[in-house]
Write a structure and sequence with these properties.
Order of helices and strands of chain A: EEEHEEHEHHHEHEHEE
Number of strands of chain B: 23
Strand order of the largest sheet of chain B: 4-5-10-7-9-8
Shape of chain A: globular
Largest sheet of chain B: 6 strands, mixed, barrel
Bound molecules: adenosine-5'-diphosphate, magnesium ion
Helix content of chain B: 40-55%
Number of helices of chain A: 7
Radius of gyration of chain A: 18 Å
Number of strands of chain A: 10
Structural class of chain A: alpha/beta
Number of domains of chain A: 1
CATH superfamily of chain A: P-loop containing nucleotide triphosphate hydrolases
Shape of chain B: elongated
CATH topology of chain A: Rossmann fold
Strand content of chain B: 15-25%
CATH class of chain A: Alpha Beta
Largest sheet of chain A: 6 strands, mixed
Distance between the termini of chain A: 22 Å
Largest interface: A-B, 23 and 22 residues
CATH architecture of chain A: 3-Layer(aba) Sandwich
Number of helices of chain B: 26
Strand content of chain A: 25-35%
Strand order of the largest sheet of chain A: 6-7-8-3-9-10
Oligomer: heterodimer
């Protein structure tokens, strides 16, 4: 499903020098895979995930998504491809504080071509499925961290993406809460969702099917 | 407290960008207010240098039915009131007048008046040398009072001035007293009054009988007795009116009713509405400036949450922290006040120079730093500081310990409340700006109408100057006719002068009114007759002025004193008085005598540019004239050379004559529009400032929101929002308060239209096109102000932004 070839990401260091965050990345991820990206802090894990998530385009190399050469796409086309295929979960949840759970879930749908009734139906499904119907009118600060991340995951998959990207989804959670999220991921993966997660924990990585190790921007 | 102030000062120095923007913004607002207040102080509050000026009243006559509003008082009426009234301690009259002064260098025209002997006693003005007039001097003795300026400039401060003789209009007058310089507010600034004589009931060229028939020319004042209110004085007028009507039923002014106004009210009446408007305008500007700075302070204070939390952790109370912030805002506003006042004191003195002909400002006084203005500025600055500081200080000091010390957390409840506050500020700014812009737009539209108004003559390349003919040398109409013949003869020989003419008055400067009636109908009694401006003109008048002859013929040399009496009337008059008829050949009754109408000329706006044309009567100089002469010359030379040419031509006829106020007709027209122009400029400048400040305010508020919400925007983009979604969201949120402000502003512009109504010419204060244009202009500017930060928002890179969290 995903093929990266010779992907590199660098930042100017000044005096014409470059600082490479990612070096010569070749990576294949097939449909239904569950990959855990591991490595020390600063290795480039988040950078890689944002490239996969098409949030960043300041890189070089080739990135094929389902045979589409995303590196040849215009920004707009890439954005609509992303909206159609990819969901994202953040370490800090990044729920919008001024919106209720319901409204937070609705955000991704509001940026895609869904009718009003479809949106209501999809949000309703998600609330059911994650068993948070009772919380739909609460604001994020009224939820525990684990509940917030639950909403974060629900929001990431509400638009039915094929690929779920998660950057240290349990990094801010207690281990029991983290475990719940991991179980949820495994369930999603079993239902056919392709997942790439960044994690520091061996235990979390064990929920996945394989591990990619990053060190100083290289896959090792 | 000292330490707090020091801290506030240090905080400002540490943030020079914030400090200079805030100070500059407020200085604009406070400076504009100081400027207008100092004008208002000079015009309205300073008061006249008379004894208890609010007990002195000015009497007017009116008869709406005859189109006579606020006209002067006739001599017989004055005398009857003087003898019959019981409400005044003193009752006096003035007939303003221009004298030719000779015997002190070149002859010059000087201004002043002829007074009843008690005039300055009633006003309560004491001479600095000598004495006021004595009752015995009123009717027969040639005495004069002069101002300090006259004494010092024209007489070199002669210590023996009392008893010295000066020659006015060819007659020696003995100076009996030197007065302080007189206030422009009552005696006019341009020309300045500097000499007064007695014999108030005589006008050269008018017979005693004419004057006693009720011609009105006296400015009458009375000092209300102690214990009598102005209302009581007013109530006493009708019985006086009635006895005048009973005693002089056939006088031309017998139908007129008398009203009075106190002097302070009287001298400010004409520009009261204008200054209310200007004061409203500068208050709006200041409020907009305040809301901009309040917003800056809010940002600044909430940005210091760590500092506050630290202070609180060390034991500071909320009040002490709020006080710290208020000190800071006070410091900003007081510095701004000083800057604003400093700039103002350099600009305010320009106003008397621009406006001397319609605002009675003392040119030399306005520069002085007056205590009330200073107090006003200081008070306003402190008020401003509190106004802008209180809310941000309370908000800023709200920060709680834990929240402040730990970093992070996007969109807390406090910031939501602040966002709300910011939206209210933006909405208010927009509302104020729209109101102001609408007012300015109306005034500008009105001014354009006014200045494009066809005034009926060609003012370009016209020079004009006035001459008073001394009655001793020109005692009767035929002598004055000879003078005009000779003067025109000399003027027409001068090369460089295209054409020349002479008339008793000129448009927009001064005019006489005459009773008239159709000679071919039942003649109404004198006191019911209509009245119209009348002009005595020499041959060539219409050609020189460029006034078209529409029918019949012009005057010529054959229309002499002993020939058939003839006149011309204006087109509007012809339509009004002779609807559907041909007036030529018909007779018009003027002062009881029939005058044959021989032609119709174009309409001239002779009284005011804004006054619709009506009946105007022209008579040949040879058949009717007074000893006041206006020479008008068409020439493409500049004022001074023309003045020299005319002066030397005049000297050949009579070397003892002086030309008063030589100027171009363009200048007179410009002056006639001066008040409208000044108002338009000032309001335009204030509205422009308001628009600028509001734009900056909107830009700042939206920009700050975008900066604060970068994280949220990044999350939304990561969840699928595209550039257009973000742009739309920011613009929508930025424009919501703008839209509300627009609605409120249009509403208040509509409501305030009444205030402007009296100042507008041929423009409705509710002109929908102008109001809509204003709203659109502001909406577009606001949209642009929103688009810049909104565009910046679309450039947020979610990866970077979320990393920075
Ligand atoms: N905008 C940037 N400019 C310079 N260096 C950056 C920028 N963004 C990330 N980096 C660097 O890239 C490296 C990898 O970052 P990241 O992908 O966040 O690492 P990880 O998620 O593995 O901890 C870090 O050393 C970081 O400092
Ligand atoms: Mg990371």
């Amino acid at each position: 499903m995903i093929r990266l070839h010779n992907v590199e990401r660098s930042y100017p260091l000044g005096r014409g020098q470059l600082f490479y965050v990612l070096r010569d990345i070749d990576l294949d991820i097939s449909q239904g895979d569950f990959v855990s990206v591991m490595g020390p802090s600063g290795a480039g894990k988040s950078t890689l995930l944002h490239i996969l998530g098409m949030h960043d385009h300041g890189w070089t190399g080739e990135y094929f998504f389902d045979e589409t050469a995303t590196h040849h796409l215009k920004a707009k086309e890439r954005a609509s491809l992303r909206n159609e295929k990819i969901g994202f979960v953040f370490q800090q949840y990044h729920l919008l504080d001024d919106l209720t759970v319901y409204e937070n879930l609705d955000i991704p749908l509001s940026y895609r071509h869904y009718s009003k009734s479809e949106r209501t139906a999809l949000v309703g499904d998600a609330l059911d499925r994650f068993q948070i119907v009772g919380k739909k009118d609460l604001y994020p600060r009224q939820l525990s961290g684990g509940q917030q991340q639950l909403v974060g995951v629900a929001r990431a998959i509400i638009a039915q993406p094929k690929l779920l990207l998660a950057d240290e989804p349990t990094g801010n959670l207690h281990s029991s809460q983290g475990e719940e999220i991991m179980k949820l991921f495994r369930k999603l993966n079993e239902e056919g969702m392709t997942i790439v997660q960044v994690t520091h924990s061996e235990k979390n990585a064990s929920y996945g099917k394989r591990i990619v190790q990053l060190r100083d921007g290289w896959i090792v | 407290m000292r330490a707090d102030l020091k801290h506030a000062f240090r905080m400002l120095v540490k943030a020079p960008a914030f400090a200079s923007i805030a100070i500059l913004t407020l200085a604009l607002g406070i400076g504009a207010n100081t400027a207008i207040f100092s004008l208002i102080h000079d015009l309205f509050l300073r008061g006249l240098p008379f004894k208890e000026p609010s007990r002195i009243v000015h009497l007017y006559n009116s008869d709406k039915a005859r189109d006579l509003v606020d006209v002067a008082i006739s001599a017989p009426r004055y005398q009857l009131y003087r003898d019959g009234q019981t409400i005044f301690d003193g009752f006096a009259a003035e007939n303003s007048f221009a004298f030719t002064l000779t015997g002190l260098g070149d002859p010059v025209q000087i201004f002043g008046g002829r007074l009843t002997s008690n005039y300055f006693d009633v006003l309560g003005v004491r001479p600095i040398l000598g004495r006021n007039f004595l009752p015995a001097e009123e009717e027969t003795v040639d005495v004069a009072l002069v101002t300090k300026n006259f004494w010092q400039k024209r007489l070199g401060g002669d210590p023996n001035v009392i008893g010295r003789s000066i020659i006015l209009d060819g007659t020696p007058h003995t100076i009996v007293g030197v007065l302080p310089n007189m206030p422009a507010a009552w005696f006019g600034a341009s020309p300045t009054a500097e000499v007064w004589t007695t014999k108030p009931f005589q006008i050269p060229g008018f017979s005693y009988a004419q004057i006693m028939r009720g011609s009105f020319f006296l400015r009458v004042v009375g000092r209300v007795k102690p214990g009598i209110t102005i209302q009581q004085a007013r109530a006493a007028l009708p019985s006086l009116e009635q006895s005048y009507r009973a005693q002089h039923p056939n006088n031309i002014d017998s139908t007129l009713t008398t009203m009075l106004r106190t002097l302070p009210e009287d001298v400010t009446r004409n520009f009261r509405a204008g200054f209310v408007t200007l004061f409203a305008a500068v208050s709006f500007v200041l409020l907009i400036a305040c809301s901009n700075v309040a917003n800056l302070l809010l940002v600044r204070f909430s940005g210091r949450r760590r500092e506050i939390a630290l202070r609180m952790a060390l034991g500071a109370s909320r009040t002490s922290i709020a006080r710290l912030f208020v000190f800071e805002s006070l410091l900003v506003s007081v510095i701004a006040g000083a800057v604003g006042a400093f700039v103002t004191w350099h600009f305010v003195p320009l106003v008397p120079r621009m406006a001397s002909n319609f605002l009675p400002l003392e040119a030399n006084d306005a520069t002085s730093l007056s205590i009330p203005v200073l107090v006003f500025t200081i008070g306003l600055s402190i008020l401003t500081g509190l106004l802008i500081g209180i809310y941000p200080a309370l908000q800023g000091s709200h920060a709680d310990l834990v929240d402040g010390l730990k970093e992070g957390g996007r969109g807390t409840k406090g910031s939501l409340r602040q966002q709300h506050f910011r939206k209210i500020l933006v909405g208010a700014q927009v509302a104020l700006s729209v109101t102001l812009l609408a007012g300015a737009a109306l005034l500008i539209a009105s001014f354009i109408r006014l200045s494009q108004q066809n005034i009926g003559f060609r003012s370009q390349n016209l020079w004009t100057g006035a001459v008073t003919l001394p009655t001793s040398q020109y005692p009767d109409p035929s002598a004055r006719q000879r003078f005009v013949e000779q003067a025109l003869h000399e003027l027409r020989r001068v090369s460089g002068l295209e054409s020349a003419t002479i008339s008793g008055d000129i448009p927009l400067v001064g005019f006489s009114r005459y009773l008239y009636a159709r000679g071919d109908r039942d003649v109404p009694p004198v006191e019911k007759r209509a009245i119209a401006p009348g002009h005595d003109v020499a041959p060539g008048y219409f050609k020189t002025w460029g006034v078209p002859l529409l029918a019949g013929r012009e005057f010529n040399e054959h229309d002499s004193a002993d020939g058939q009496k003839v006149c011309l009337i204006s087109q509007a008059g012809a339509k009004e008085i002779y609807p559907g008829e041909n007036p030529i050949g018909k007779s018009l009754l003027l002062a009881g005598l029939p005058w044959e109408i021989i032609g119709i000329v174009g309409d001239v706006r002779s009284v005011r540019v804004a006054e619709a044309p009506g009946m105007e009567i022209y008579r040949p100089w040879a058949q009717h004239n007074f000893p006041f002469v206006n020479i008008t010359v068409r020439s493409n030379l500049k004022v001074d050379p023309v003045t020299r040419l005319v002066q030397s031509a005049l000297a050949k006829v009579n070397p003892g004559l002086a030309i008063a106020t030589p100027q171009t007709m363009d200048a007179i027209v410009a002056q006639a529009l001066g008040q409208a122009r000044l108002m338009t400029w000032l309001l335009g400048i204030f509205a422009g400032t308001a628009l600028l400040l509001a734009t900056v305010g909107i830009y700042g508020a939206v920009g700050y929101t975008v900066a604060q919400r970068t994280g949220e925007i990044a999350v939304r983009m990561a969840l699928g929002a595209q550039a257009n979604d973000v742009l739309r969201m920011i613009v929508r949120q930025g424009m919501t308060p703008v839209a509300i402000g627009l609605v409120v502003g249009l509403g208040s512009a509509f409501a305030l239209g009444r205030l402007l109504g009296t100042q507008l010419y041929q423009v409705s204060p509710h002109n929908p096109v102008l109001l809509a244009t204003t709203a659109i202009l502001l909406a577009v500017v606001a949209l642009i102000a929103c688009l810049f930060p909104a565009r910046r928002a679309t450039l947020v890179n979610p990866m970077q932004a979320l990393r920075a969290e």
